[in-house]
Amino acid sequence: ITYQVPASRQPEFLVAIHELATTRRRDGAYNWGVFVDVASPEHILEIFYTHDFAEHERQHHRSVIADAPLHAKVRAFHSGAAPPQVRHWVT
Questions:
Q1: pLDDT tens digit string along 32-60?
Q2: Would you say 32 and 25 are in contact if contact means Cβ atoms under 8 Å apart?
Q3: 70 within 8 A of 19, measured Cβ to Cβ
Q4: What does the H/E/C string look like for the chain?
Q5: 15-24, 39-48, 50-59, 75-84: lowest mean pLDDT where?
Q6: CA nearest 62: which of 28, 19, 18?
Q7: What is the pTM of this model?
Q8: What pLDDT, on the 0 to 100 scale, is given for residue 45?
Q9: Which of 11, 29, 35, 67 could form an SS bridge with 48, CB 3.0 to 4.6 Å?
């Protein structure tokens, strides 16, 4: 997931997105990370790995209502005109 976050808001964003890592792992991710684009620092990439795409699909059903405010909090830092870009990569 690629977010656009102004530099002035990145410290807060990084705290919030690290909170989200716990929910990603609980819901089936076995690895998680966040990266800042050196060439374009307002672009931040969140990645997480699942064993297969079917497992990722199950994540959508495992997400609990209690996590919705945290997801909304992270999305609120995004400043792009379009929502954060979600891409799926498979091996």
A1: 999 999 999 999 999 999 888 777 777 77
A2: yes
A3: yes
A4: CEEECCHHHHHHHHHHHHHHHHHHHHCCCCEEEEEECCCCCCEEEEEEECCCHHHHHHHHHHCCHHHHHHHHHHHHCCCCCCCCECCCCCC
A5: 50-59
A6: 28
A7: 0.87
A8: 98
A9: 29
Residue recorded with tokens 């374009």: 40
Picking from 63, 89, 88, 73, the residue whose alpha carbon sits closest to that of residue 5 is 73
Q: Which amino acid is at 41?
A: P
CA atoms within 13 A on the CB side of 37: 14
What phi, psi does 53 have (nearest 5°)?
A: -65, -35
67 φ, ψ (degrees, to nearest 5): -85, -15
Tokens of 75: 């999305």
